[in-house]
Design brief:
The structure holds two protein chains of two kinds. By secondary structure, chain A is mainly alpha-helical. Helix content of chain A is about 80%, strand content about 0%. Chain A folds into two domains: about 50 residues, no CATH class; about 210 residues, MetI-like (MetI-like fold, Orthogonal Bundle). Chain B is globular and about 55 Å long. The chains are: A mainly alpha, B alpha/beta. The interface between A and B is medium-sized, with 27 and 33 residues.
């Protein structure tokens, strides 16, 4: 996977190649392949012990050997993350709309929410385990707790920053608070909302895996904990890689939905002014 | 109708405890129905505040406003408004932006479902009147600044407001676009005859568009001078360079300089 070959005749128009769309497309894969290559060369060249830093090939080998068990655990993590993320969207949007549209609610609730958000969620997991026992529920809740705050803040920002002139126009037309939110606030908050989804989905993964590591008997977090306690370091790394891949996949899905739904927000630079 | 807008002895102080800026002091403005009035004055003199008071968006600290025979105590739904910033909704096409007031203001909102085609035709006609035929389905980012402003003015007019409030709507445009829009504005006004209050700091604009020009003093604002523009309609741009208009602009300018010095 080292085909970072330059074109044979780059002299005539060397810039054309880097602007090539297909090249841009494969570039991320090339970067990843490059990282693995350098990693492999370092591990082999410096003779690093596998229990300190395993080589990519040994990681892939271990991952392939245990792929069923990895997939089962990855599926568990994906489920808890998605469920937590789903609740984070609902609660985040509802609270975001409330906080963004009312300065009273903002003044009252925001400081408490900020305080809550500063609590490291890893400290909450043991309490969740006391309440709900070892299992999926603490992971779902932890994923939710980490993911809802960025969604809330972004939705609130989008709604709170409607131009004052536009608010005047709407008020003079006799618009109710709800009409203003529905016609202007919510559509306006959509770019913020979708941008926050990309952040939220990745932190939701972090939440699930934290909870699985602290107390669970399933999921990628638990799998990595077990693997490293047995000094099967390549296997633990395989878990890490799978987590990263799931994060990227979910991020890409969120990004695709974003550009589909709110193209108007990113395209505004292209027109006549 | 005489004195369609009657703002009498209005003072307005911002801030709740009465220690904020005094933006208006004993300002009185009377506008007849169908009249085009321009308000000019030094920057920061409270012109925009005047608009907010007349439309009922801000309650005055003292004095009162009567519009169409009724005391203004809440936002007036018979108003259309346009500002220096077009404030179009970027996720809507030009046509849908113009339609926005019909979705909100009564009695149109409750009839919208039934009369959608009729309302749409009306919006298209209005856009055509300001020269935006063929741009109905463009999004704001696909329109030039002048086109956006035209759309914004159409949005202010779509629900047939009897009072049109314009707060420096052409202020951010270049000279040529601005003059084009003056002509479009004059055409709109002559076709529909709403009562217009235009806030501007462009004296030529005031002379070209208005029947009557009010000069505001420095803050706290009040009306210090008033001039009627004796130019026949429809007016041509060349008229603003004739000696009558130039003299008028100069006179207004002197008033404003005087108003600026009396801080």
């Amino acid at each position: 996977m080292s085909e970072i070959t330059l074109p044979t005749a780059p002299r005539r128009r060397p810039r054309k190649f880097t602007r090539n769309k297909a090249f841009r497309r494969v570039l991320p894969w090339l970067v990843v392949a490059g990282i693995f290559l350098v990693w492999q060369l370092l591990v082999v060249g410096l003779r690093i012990e596998p229990f300190v830093l395993p080589s990519p090939t040994s990681i892939f080998a271990a991952g392939w050997q245990w792929h069923t068990i990895i997939l089962v655990n990855a599926w568990q993590t994906l489920m808890t993350t998605t469920i937590g993320f789903f609740f984070a969207i609902i609660i985040g949007v509802v609270l975001g709309v409330a906080i963004g549209s009312s300065s009273l609610i903002y003044d009252g609730f925001y400081p408490a929410l900020v305080g809550f958000n500063t609590i490291p969620k890893v400290a909450v997991v043991p309490i969740l385990i006391i309440w709900f026992g070892v299992g999926s529920v603490p992971a779902i809740i932890t994923a939710f707790l980490l993911a809802f705050f960025p969604i809330l803040v972004n939705v609130a920002t989008g709604i709170a920053t409607v131009e004052p002139e536009l608010q005047d126009v709407l008020r003079a037309l006799g618009a109710s608070k709800w009409q203003t939110i529905r016609k202007v606030g919510l559509p306006r908050a959509m770019p913020y909302f979708f941008a926050s989804l990309k952040v939220a989905i990745t932190v939701a993964f972090v939440g699930s895996i934290i909870a699985e590591t602290v107390g669970s008997n399933a999921g990628i977090g638990n799998f990595m904990l077990v693997a490293s306690s047995r000094f099967e370091v390549p296997l633990a790394f395989a878990g890490l890689l799978v987590t990263g891949a799931m994060g990227i996949a979910m991020y890409a899905i969120a990004g695709a939905i974003e550009s589909r739904m709110t193209g108007w927000a990113t395209r505004s630079g292209g027109g006549a002014t | 109708m005489k004195n369609f807008v009657d703002m009498h002895e209005v003072s307005l102080r911002y801030g709740e405890d009465g220690d904020g800026t005094l933006a208006l002091q004993n300002a009185s403005v009377k506008v007849d129905s169908g009249e085009f009035v321009a308000v000019v004055g030094p920057s920061g003199c409270g012109k925009s505040t005047l608009m907010k008071v007349i439309t009922g968006l801000w309650p005055p600290t003292a004095g009162g406003v009567i519009v169409n025979g009724k005391e203004v105590d809440k936002p007036l739904s018979i108003t259309g408004m346009a500002f220096q910033n077009p404030t179009l909704l970027p996720w809507r096409t030009a046509l849908d932006n113009v339609m926005l007031p019909l979705e909100i203001a009564e009695p149109h909102a409750s009839q919208l479902r039934r009369n959608r085609t009729m309302f749409e035709t009306k919006a298209r006609d209005l856009l055509a009147l300001v020269g935006l035929k063929g741009f109905e389905n463009k999004f704001p980012w696909e329109l030039s600044g002048g086109m956006q402003q035209r759309t914004s003015i159409c949005r202010a007019l779509i629900h047939d407001p009897s009072l049109l409030m314009l707060d420096e709507p052409f202020g951010a445009l270049d000279m040529f676009t601005r003059e084009e829009l003056w002509l479009a504005m004059q055409e709109l006004w002559m076709a529909r005859r709403p009562t217009v209050i235009l806030v501007t700091h462009d004296l030529r604009e005031a002379v070209f568009l208005a029947d009557r020009i009010l000069v505001m003093s420095n803050r706290p604002g009040r009306i210090v001078a008033e001039r009627t523009v004796e130019l026949p309609r429809p007016r041509q741009l060349s008229m603003t360079y004739e000696s009558y208009s130039v003299g008028l602009v100069q006179e207004l300018r002197d008033h404003i300089s005087a108003a600026r010095e009396n801080v």
